[in-house]
Design goal:
- It is a single chain.
- The protein is an alpha+beta fold and 218 residues long.
- It has one domain (3-216).
- It is built from four helices and twelve strands; from the N terminus they run αααβββββββββββαβ.
- Strands 1, 2, 3, 4, 5, 6, 7, 8, 9, 10, 11 and 12 form a twelve-stranded mixed β-sheet that branches.
Length: 218
C-alpha cells in the first residue's frame, strides 16, 4: 500500500475519532483544575480542541489528494468572552530532524502550531502531522513500520494572542522522498521522545513542505 493510500485510510479513521478528542479534553479539564472551570469554559475548550485536532486530516488531504499550491483554511474558536487574553497561538518551526541517505544528508524542521490556554496552561499542539494534548499523543503521524510522512516547513516563527477566534491558512508547497535512511537524529524538544520512537527503523521518509499562518479575527 502506498503512502497516499495509507493516508486516505488514516484520514477516515481520524474523522471518526474526533469526538473522542473533545471528551478527553473535558475529562482533563475537570480533573486538572475543577475549581476554575465553569461549564461554559469546559465546553469552549472541548470545542476548540476538536476543531484544532481536525487540522490534521485537513492538512493531510492537501498532499494526499491535492497538488503543490493547493491551500485550505479553518476558523479556530479560540479565546473566551470573559477573558482579556485567554491564551496564545504560536506557529512555525517545531522539532528539527536530520538523517543520512544515499544522496547525502538532510535536515528539516517539523511544522508546528501550538495553542496554549492560559487558564491552566493547557497545550494542544499540531506538529509534523501528529497532534499532542497536554503533552500526550492524541493523533499519531502518518507512519508505518518502514515508511513515514512528515509535515515540515521552512517558514519563520510567529505568535498571536488567542483571545478571539483565529483564522488559520495552510498551503501545500512540495514533497521530497528519501530512501535508505540512516543516522536519524531528532533534536531535543517536548515531543522528541515520540518522534524517536515513531521514526526508529524507518527506511523511507517523505517530507511534505507546507506553510501555515494564523491571524486573529475581531
Amino acid at each position: 500500500m502506498s503512502c497516499r493510500e495509507d493516508a486516505v485510510s488514516e484520514i477516515v479513521s481520524f474523522l471518526l475519532i474526533l469526538g473522542v478528542v473533545a471528551a478527553g479534553v473535558g475529562i482533563y479539564a475537570a480533573v486538572a483544575e475543577p475549581e476554575i472551570f465553569k461549564a461554559e469554559e469546559r465546553q469552549h475548550l472541548e470545542y476548540a480542541a476538536e476543531e484544532f485536532s481536525s487540522l490534521k486530516p485537513d492538512i493531510d488531504r492537501l498532499w494526499v489528494l491535492g497538488t503543490p499550491g493547493d491551500s485550505g483554511s479553518k476558523l479556530l474558536p479560540l479565546g473566551a468572552a470573559d477573558r482579556t487574553s485567554s491564551g496564545t497561538l504560536s506557529f512555525g518551526k517545531g522539532t528539527p530532524i536530520r538523517f543520512s541517505h544515499p544522496g547525502g544528508e538532510k535536515t528539516a524542521s517539523l511544522l508546528r502550531l501550538d495553542y496554549t490556554y492560559r487558564a491552566f496552561q493547557y497545550h494542544i499542539v499540531y506538529e509534523g502531522g501528529a497532534v499532542f494534548s497536554a503533552g500526550d499523543i492524541l493523533l499519531p503521524a502518518a507512519a508505518g513500520e518502514t515508511k513515514a510522512v512528515l509535515i515540515c516547513t521552512d517558514q519563520t516563527d510567529d505568535v498571536i494572542l488567542a483571545n478571539t477566534p483565529a483564522a488559520v491558512t495552510y498551503m501545500f508547497q512540495k514533497t521530497e522522498t528519501f530512501s535508505g535512511i540512516e543516522n536519524l537524529q531528532i533534536a531535543e524538544s517536548p515531543y522528541s521522545g515520540y518522534w524517536q520512537e515513531t521514526l526508529a527503523g524507518m527506511e523511507n521518509i517523505t517530507l511534505v513542505y507546507c506553510t501555515l499562518f494564523a491571524e486573529a479575527v475581531p
